[in-house]
Amino acid sequence: METTLSHYFGYETFRPGQKEIISKIIDHRNVLGVLPTGGGKSICYQVPGLMLDGTTIVISPLISLMKDQVDQLNAAGINAAYLNSSMTQKQQKAVEQELLRGEVQFLYVAPERFDNGYFVNLLQQLTIPLVAFDEAHCISKWGHDFRPSYQEVIHKVFALPQDFAIVALTATATTEVQKDIMQRLNINKNDEIKTSTKRRNLVFKVNPTYQRQKFVLDYVKEHSDVAGIIYCSTRKQVEELHEAFQDQNIQSTIYHAGLSNKEREQAQNDFVYDRVRVVVATNAFGMGIDKSNVRYVIHYNMPGDLESYYQEAGRAGRDGLNSDCILLFSERDIGLHQYFISVSKADDDYKDKMGEKLTKMIQYTKTKKCLEATLVHYFEPNEKLEECQQCSNCVHENKTYDMTDEAKMIISCIARMKQQESYSVIIQVLRGETSDYIKYCDYDQLSTHGLMKDYTTSDLSHLIDELRFKGYLNEHDEILTCDASVKKLLNANAAVFTTPFKRKSKEKVSINTVEGVDKALFDELKSVRQQLSEQLEIAPVSIFSDYTLEEFAKRKPESKQDMIAIDGVGSYKLKHYCPKFLETIQSYKAQI
Ligand code: ADP
Ligand code: MG
Ligand code: ZN
């Protein structure tokens, strides 16, 4: 087992849970593995698949993501293939021939493939030691990403004549979802392997800023040389933020379900191949994506439940290096999810469940307790809780921000209106917009017209909400009026502070300064990797992860022997990729 791991993947030791899962598969048992994102779930079916004769079938939820997995295996000298509807007849035939000759060790397919009788017939002729269900939470209706096709495929798999083991793998499953998966896939109670959900390299932060856009722009500028994902809840918001990036000359790409397949594929490739650093996306992006060096995931809006949040945030730092998971939110996000639940066509039971999940998510944004512990408690209620000492609650990073100036501007605007006006009119006036109504009322003549033109609509509504909660403004049917208490404020006898908001972090996040790593060499090695990647059409991190490059830059290996001792260097990679890196290290050393 260890030999297979080090020969093909270059790792000396298994991560928690991997060995137990693999042993059970080799013993021909059906297994459920619950390992955190980045915990190394792929190895759990890849190592036994290499040890057993025949073709391991991997069921994966999205067609567009199989290519990465297959490329990664090919990059390690392993014959893997996928079959999907985006391929030409000729390509499909070629794969079928290889399958029939018994040359393919891993075949990736989407569950829908099993609807095709021809395909099922082909499978019947193969030797199949193992069927893997990746992202197995998609099987359960109680999961956060239920796909009916994932459930329907199960009986078709069981109907195959071969006698294979089944492994189901997932990162984010509540106890209920785990039970459901095990029952459906015929997995014994004793054959569930679960490791801690904790991922110590992720630094969780909650930031109730009212200036989300500014926060994100500042953050991305400060971290311009590393990769990150920004999740928004709507396509519109994705596009708006992307535009804001373009205005500031920040390179970014977008991804949402409204784009064509081709556009989405392009966006994903640009990101995976390190051609752009930032992707702004809806939650359609990222499942199974193979990019281990994502250094931050920012949620521009609050997701509807903690499973989705943890799954999406967990796409950061899969290489084990420190990464930020930041949740921005405003009270308005809550209303949106409540609305989604209320209009959903699901039965009442299901709606209740979603409502409970939403409540837990809201609690996460409000808690003063350790964020990591809060997450762990959600997934593992019996786990002993410890403070992580690094999340924004543990380090008390969130400062309140003096919004007295903004408060005065808003209040004086409201006071100058010739009649009582609604939220949206006031925001439009402050932003300096001109509608027929504004012109009709001569509001464009007011001194407050355009007074806050640098603030976005959502910044302003957030500020107004703060003033309402603090009692300075009253609202009735969307109409805003000033409370008597504003007098004190205007006379400069009081200050207004936002609920905790982090304006600027004092210490820069130390995601680029790992101890002992020669940064200049690391950058050179990264560009070697980039060149190789373009040349071989393999994603950079499939060649070597950032972790492995950091080890190179730390230890400065002089020979192939030195290199093979480093995590992530297997014999295939040693032969094919290492020479270039060795050369670079040598000439770097010669210079200093
Ligand atoms: P996930 O559990 O999220 O599917 P992956 O299978 O994509 O995670 O693995 C995440 C990263 O961890 C990959 O870069 C993989 O090569 C690496 N990895 C997996 N197993 C080990 C191991 N035993 N030692 C070191 N790195 C590993
Ligand atoms: Mg995975
Ligand atoms: Zn903490």
Automatic annotation (TrEMBL):
Q: Name one GO biological process term.
A: DNA repair
UniProt KW keywords: ATP-binding, DNA damage, DNA recombination, DNA repair, DNA-binding, Helicase, Hydrolase, Isomerase, Metal-binding, Nucleotide-binding, Zinc
Q: Which GO terms describe its cellular component?
A: bacterial nucleoid; cytoplasm; replisome
User: Which SMART domains does the annotation name?
Assistant: DEXDc, HELICc, HRDC, RQC
Which cofactors does this protein require? Mg(2+); Zn(2+)
Q: Which SUPFAM superfamilies match?
A: HRDC-like, P-loop containing nucleoside triphosphate hydrolases, Winged helix' DNA-binding domain
In alphabetical order, the GO MF annotations are:
3'-5' DNA helicase activity; ATP binding; DNA binding; four-way junction helicase activity; hydrolase activity; metal ion binding
User: What is the superkingdom listed in this entry's lineage?
Assistant: Bacteria
Q: Which residues form the Helicase ATP-binding domain?
A: 22-191
One protein family per Pfam: Helicase_C
Catalyzed reactions: Couples ATP hydrolysis with the unwinding of duplex DNA by translocating in the 3'-5' direction
> This protein is called what?
DNA helicase RecQ
Annotated HRDC domain ranges read 515-592
- For the Helicase C-terminal domain, which residue ranges apply? 211-362
Question: Organism classification, top ranks?
Answer: Bacteria, Bacillati, Bacillota, Bacilli, Bacillales
What EC number(s) does the entry state? Answer: 5.6.2.4
Give the similarity note: Belongs to the helicase family. RecQ subfamily.
InterPro entries the record matches: DEAD/DEAH_box_helicase_dom, DNA_helicase_ATP-dep_RecQ, DNA_helicase_ATP-dep_RecQ_bac, Helicase_ATP-bd, Helicase_C-like, HRDC-like_sf, HRDC_dom, HRDC_dom_sf
